[in-house]
Design brief:
Elements lengths: L28 E2 L9 E2 L4 E2 L7 E2 L2 H4 L6 H4 L16 H11 L2 H18 L5 H9 L1
Parallel strand pairs: 1-4
Antiparallel strand pairs: 2-3
Helix pairs in contact: 3-4, 3-5
């Protein structure tokens, strides 16, 4: 995903004032709900942290788990390194693909496939991925 593009360019049902409509992923924080920690600024129509970081208050709409991505410089879910152990792949795949933009999904599936086959060349990768995503 290009770093300069708005995050919610894929039709996600975000609010009209969501920072994901104007900011790339990772340049805004996501919290579970509005709070005093990210007050609404009536002048701009947006929410910000005390440090001025834009905030989304609907993780389920933006498709990102609540986390201080911009504040703490956290990686977006699909940027997290894959696990080293094959038994951890299903959980990683599920979390990553839930939030990943379409252009990142192929790489995630390729990484998962490589890990699974390295652990056991006879693994039915399709079955593992189906189970992880169902």
């Amino acid at each position: 995903m290009a770093g300069s593009e708005a995050f919610a360019r894929d039709g996600r049902p975000v609010c009209g004032v969501c920072p994901s409509l104007r900011c790339p992923g990772g340049t805004f924080d996501v919290v579970d709900r509005p709070s005093r920690d990210c007050p609404f600024d009536p002048e701009t129509g947006h929410r910000f942290t005390a440090a001025g970081v834009p905030v989304c208050v609907h993780p389920e709409r933006v498709g990102l788990p609540a986390a201080p991505y911009a504040t703490e410089g956290l990686l977006l879910p699909w940027e997290t390194p894959p696990p080293a152990e094959a038994d951890e792949v299903p959980t990683w795949v599920r979390a990553v693909l839930h939030a990943a933009p379409p252009d990142a999904c192929d790489e995630v599936i390729q990484q998962a496939t490589s890990i699974l086959l390295a652990a056991d060349p006879d693994t039915d990768v399709t079955a593992v991925l189906r189970a992880a995503l169902s």
